[in-house]
Amino acid sequence: MTVLASPPKEPTVDGTQDLFEEARHRRRRRRLVVGVVLVTLLLGGVIAGLMAAGGGGRNAQITATRPHPTPAAVAPSKAATPGATELAWIASGGLHLGSPSQGTNHLVPQTSAATATRLLRIGSRVYFLVRHAIAWRCNPEAGCVRLQTAGSHVAVFDTRTGRLRSLGTGINLTTTTDGRDLLVALNQSHLVELSPTGVRLSRVWTIPSGYSLDTYAPQHPVVAVADGIVIQSTRPTRLPSGEAAPDSAYTLAFWDPTRGSVRILGRDLFVIGSYTAPRAKHSLVAWVDGAHSGRLALTDTATFKTRLVTSPLSSTDTEFGNNFLGGGGFSPDGRQLAAFVTAFRPHDWPNAQLVLVNPTNGSVRLVGNTVVQIGEPQGWATWSPSGRELFGGSYREGSVIQAFELKAGQNTATLLSLDRNANDDVTGSAVAVQGGNG
What we know:
Blueprint: H1 41-52, E1 68-72, E2 85-91, E3 94-98, E4 106-107, E5 114-122, E6 125-132, E7 135-139, E8 143-148, E9 151-158, E10 163-169, E11 172-175, E12 182-187, E13 190-194, E14 205-206, E15 211-212, E16 224-225, E17 228-236, E18 250-256, E19 261-275, E20 284-289, E21 296-300, E22 305-309, E23 324-330, E24 337-343, E25 351-357, E26 364-366, E27 372-373, E28 380-383, E29 389-393, E30 401-407, E31 414-419, E32 429-434
Antiparallel strand pairs: 1-10, 2-3, 2-32, 3-4, 5-6, 6-9, 7-8, 9-10, 11-12, 12-13, 13-14, 15-17, 16-17, 17-18, 18-19, 19-20, 20-21, 21-22, 23-24, 24-25, 25-26, 25-27, 28-29, 29-30, 30-31
């Protein structure tokens, strides 16, 4: 089922891709540095082709590029057992594929510029973002002129065939609610739907004025719900006094592009994700409520009733608060939500710990051996396609990407090592794929 319908009007193109560099998390202990690498001439042509129609002018229509195939980048993994779960993750050198618990690790060539902000899976295909650098031309007399603006494009690697392709410009992405197609954020206010192979299925939709796709930090997901998209205000909520609400608290809303309606839900810190049952007309959305001390909020779009859930470690006070953090996701059947809460170890950096939430009754279970250091107020978690395994970790702290694996029926996770010598260009994230089939 396609999530979106025709937009109310033509998009207005800003022309730049580095629009979300505002520092909205002033309480960070340290920033994670996302490295950028100059894109090849071929990929540069893809981006130029996409934005050329816009040209920065108003009322200009954005045209999407056709996907550009490349020769096979790497042979499919022969070590994979048919039906077994493999992990695709970003670490030093680019995109990796394998089973860390079994010691298999295959680096996918030509992916050194991959950024670990979002990874998605549709069948045997893994989607990720590749960052472009800002290009300058300088001389002693005239100074420096910017030739290319920072941005990124969407790439896809087929784990079954070993083929790598570019699908065009994008700064964030998600799947439609049925998991069959892609929704790609071209920038903070424009969205397009693509098939798994990159064929454009829609025109470009424009987010309503005053709202955005919550892409200021690329780790944050674009979230689709039945008949709509989750959007956020572009400025913090104002208090009755007229003063700005505490930083990081923005207005959360649902946008129905068919009707052109926007329904405000509340003030949020993070949107974690959504679950839509097969053929359902409503969704369950998980988010962190900015008006209730960072408690987890579970909202059913059928009734718009919200259940608030408190962390079992809410007595712990850390730099990032004492409740829920960003990152996580629903299991494939929607019966569990993986999420993160703040944890604390004396004389240590801020930490996060994995919890499993029952969306039906709001019960929360701490998972042992999952405390990870965080430099951002969030972690990451990904379920295997079968739902029998859960992988998670931190984006990065120091030179180590901390990760863990939890199998169904267990209360304690097994630690994994995705990268022990990560450089500043690596932030860590992963997605589980089904090995040997697709």
